[in-house]
Amino acid sequence: MLFPDLTSRRADIAIRDGIITEIGVQLAKSGDEQTVDVSGHLVLPGFVDTHRHMWLGVLSASSSGVPLFPYVQQINEGHGDPFTTEDVYAGVLWGALQAIHAGVTTVADWAHNLGSPADIDANMRALVDSGIRARVYFGGKASSSGDPGLFEGHAREMLTSHTAAGSGRIGLGLGLRGPSMSSPEETERDFALARDMGLPISIHAGMAGLPGAVEQLHQQGLLGADVNYVHANEFTQREWELIAQSGGTVTATPTVDLTMGLGVHPATGPALSHGIPVGLGADTVAYGPSDLFGEMRLVLATERARANAAPIARGEMPGELVYGHLDLLDVATRGGARVVGLPDLAGEIAVGRYADLITVDLDAPHLDGFDDPVLAAFLSAGPSDVDTVVIDGRVLKRGGKLSGAVAERARELMRASRDRIKARRT
Questions:
Q1: Rounded to whole angstroms, what are the CA distances from 373 to 9, 213, 343, 364, 369?
Q2: What pLDDT score does 151 carry?
Q3: Domain membership of residue 87 as a residue range
Q4: Distance CA 384, CA 141 (A)
Q5: Mean pLDDT, the chain, as a whole number?
Q6: What pLDDT does 148 receive?
């Protein structure tokens, strides 16, 4: 179940060793447990963000109004090329805290500003120190400062050095350039590397002006259930069928997809209609928001606009509307868990699942709804309404504020990194 039966409106959730062990009303206490009172709050599964470049945390709101390739020149190359190892750590740590603050408990970190083993270590340490659950898709240094492909030795070092990082909270994958950004020979080499290492694959594909990625992978015999396709705005019907047949997954990043011009609709609707697991991602906080509340609402609006276009063009009012708020909440939680390979562990409030939970304070005027607190949160909540965040059984946000010394230290590191970045421009 997505969350406990709301007919009772109240429930206790027991957690032990980072796992939900019991759900019920007035559960018996042993006397030695920590109790977190969230009366008057809506408890939801933590959101699963299936595509975010975490190193961009220090570059929040640094770009707007430019399409993809000028953005890459401005951000990845202009700011990212000279990143030091200290900048990597500060960016990823601050990016992780941005996600936690917004109720994201699991994130797929598409890490493509890593030019050395020291950078890899900094990226991993930042995720571990933040407390977030993550899958790191190592993408090398995808900019002009070096080989934009993978450094095989670095990737293998990451696998051998960090498989146990974060006591199981951190999983690994490879972020590949894919057919849209490399030659067929390079694509074959990169896919072979990932599969030789037994790591899942994530690629950017299906963006406007870059057609045919899935068809090329099919021709090369490289499709598989281990591939996640990010963006996926402009796939053909045949490409959708190929992904469904191969068992692949999709990530939509609605704000960036639509405002950067990567497509005219998110990929969510086509993926769902083909039975393909789909999740949502914030992608880049340099260009878009850091939360999934707005992404869910944007998907609902755009998918209904897509479905409503035909009757409206005929001068008719639509007789029914596609999708509802629970469908999009499912995409942002259970859907995301399927995409990152945690279908039976994350994205739900159920016994045996990870204790990755968030609460929304319903006392605010914009959340004090008529009868359905879930609908109220879907329609109106944002990061500041997330009161409590629990990841792996640890309370990382309480009373609307991030907990622990790491939050204040992260702010200091972020500001120092920003000072260095700005000084390089002069």
A1: 10, 42, 26, 12, 6
A2: 55
A3: 47-333
A4: 34
A5: 91
A6: 44
Q: Which two tokens stand for residue 236?
A: 């053909």
- What are the beta bridge partners of residue 323? none
Strand partners, 360: 42, 386
Helix (H, G, I), strand (E, B) or coil at 70: helix
Q: Give how many domains the chain has, as a whole number.
A: 1
Distance CA 330, CA 370 (A): 22
pLDDT in tens, 317-355: 999 999 999 999 999 999 999 999 999 999 999 999 999
CB 40 within 8 A of CB 23: no
Question: Half-sphere exposure of residue 387, counting CA atoms within 13 Å on the CB side?
Answer: 18
Provide the pLDDT for residue 214.
98
> Does residue 4 belong to any structural domain of this protein?
no
> Quick one: which of 358, 343, 395, 353 has its CA closest to 20?
353
CA angle 267, 282, 352 (to 5 degrees): 90
Low-confidence ranges of the chain (pLDDT < 70): 1-8, 142-167
Q: Output the pLDDT for position 1.
A: 41
The H or E element spanning position 410 is: helix 405-424
Beta bridge partners of 110: 137
Query: Counting beta carbons within 10 angstroms of the beta carbon of residue 307, is it exposed (0 to 12), middle (13 to 18) or buried (19 or more)?
Result: middle
Distance CA 384, CA 399 (A): 10
Query: Which CATH number goes with the domain that contains 181?
Result: 3.20.20.140
The residue length of the chain stands at 426
42, 360 contact by CB (below 8 A): yes
Q: At what angle do helices 117-130 and 152-162 cross, to 10 degrees?
A: 40
**pLDDT tens by residue, 41-62:** 999 999 999 999 999 999 999 9
- Amino acid at residue number 249: T
CA gap 361, 377 in Å, rounded: 9
The amino acid occupying position 7 is T
- For residue 28, the model assigns a pLDDT of 84
Query: Of all helices (H) and strands (E), which one includes residue 230?
Result: strand 227-231
- Give the model's pLDDT for residue 4: 47
